[in-house]
């Protein structure tokens, strides 16, 4: 036969508590326990969230990592060139110029392949160079955020179309200033935040490749 739990004597009452009093006491005890657990759970939740944030901060690369890194675009160009029939630009630039990106981008939805180099200039500004194959006006407009040409400039005998968006308040991405020219082989697009003088310097370094493409056809 199971033993009955001894009745609890309540000092304040001087007698054992009734079944209803026992039930009320346990209910109150549970309520107080839940109240104490709520802030505890909140603190634990906040600590877990903070720990997760710290881990993400430690693991995710900083935003300026890509800007600061240097890429040997000459080597990337040589590697990509082995499997391509067309000559990729490998501009020779003076000290102070460096690259933070270089890749051969194969056809996306627009079916346009492009050899891309991101340059940081001596003034620490940016110019992205694209040598695109099979490009058309739609591709150019997309790269330049549908901005309009406002003139042209001839550099080493090569005529470039100028897109000058430095005074606009619109979001034009990297197309603050741009130069575009085309040959029977490639569409050449330079776009970024550098000065026109630095654009001219980069465009001039591309002249031998552009001229060779023009003379092929």
List the helices and strands and how they pair.
Blueprint: E1 9-10, E2 15-16, H1 19-59, H2 65-68, H3 73-81, E3 98-105, E4 113-120, E5 126-133, H4 137-143, E6 152-155, E7 158-164, E8 177-182, E9 187-192, H5 196-216
Antiparallel strand pairs: 1-2, 3-4, 4-5, 5-9, 6-7, 7-8, 8-9
Protein name: DUF4245 domain-containing protein
Keywords: Membrane, Transmembrane, Transmembrane helix
Transmembrane segments: 41-60
Describe this structure in words.
It contains 5 helices and 9 strands; from the N terminus they run E-E-H-H-H-E-E-E-H-E-E-E-E-H. It has 2 domains: 9-59; 65-216, 2-Layer Sandwich (Phosphorylase Kinase, domain 1), CATH 3.30.200.100. It has helices spanning 19-59, 65-68, 73-81, 137-143, 196-216, and strands at residues 9-10, 15-16, 98-105, 113-120, 126-133, 152-155, 158-164, 177-182, 187-192. The longest helix is centred in the first third of the chain and has 41 residues, at 19-59. Helix content is 38%, strand content 24%. It has 217 residues and is of the alpha+beta class. Strand 4 and strand 5 (126-133) form a beta hairpin. It comes from Orlajensenia flava.
Descriptors:
single chain, 217 residues, alpha+beta, Phosphorylase Kinase, domain 1, 2 domains, seven-stranded antiparallel beta sheet, two-stranded antiparallel sheet, 5 helices, 9 strands, 38% helix
């Amino acid at each position: 036969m199971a033993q009955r739990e001894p009745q609890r004597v309540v000092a304040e009452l001087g007698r054992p508590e009734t079944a209803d009093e026992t039930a009320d006491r346990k209910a109150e005890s549970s309520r107080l326990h839940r109240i104490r657990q709520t802030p505890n759970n909140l603190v634990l939740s906040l600590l877990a969230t903070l720990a997760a944030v710290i881990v993400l901060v430690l693991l995710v690369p900083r935003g300026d990592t890509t800007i600061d890194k240097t890429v040997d675009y000459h080597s990337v160009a040589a590697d990509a060139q082995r499997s391509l029939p067309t000559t990729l630009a490998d501009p020779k630039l003076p000290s102070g110029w460096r690259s933070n990106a270089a890749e051969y981008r194969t056809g996306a939805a627009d079916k346009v392949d492009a050899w891309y180099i991101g340059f940081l200039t001596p003034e620490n500004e940016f110019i992205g160079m694209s040598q695109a194959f099979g490009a058309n006006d739609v591709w150019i407009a997309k790269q330049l955020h549908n901005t309009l040409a406002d003139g042209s400039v001839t550099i080493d005998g090569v005529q470039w179309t100028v897109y000058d968006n430095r005074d606009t308040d619109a979001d034009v991405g990297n197309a603050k200033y741009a130069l575009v020219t085309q040959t029977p082989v490639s569409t050449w697009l330079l776009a970024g935040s550098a000065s026109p003088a630095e654009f001219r310097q980069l465009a001039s370094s591309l002249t031998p490749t552009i001229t060779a493409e023009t003379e092929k056809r």
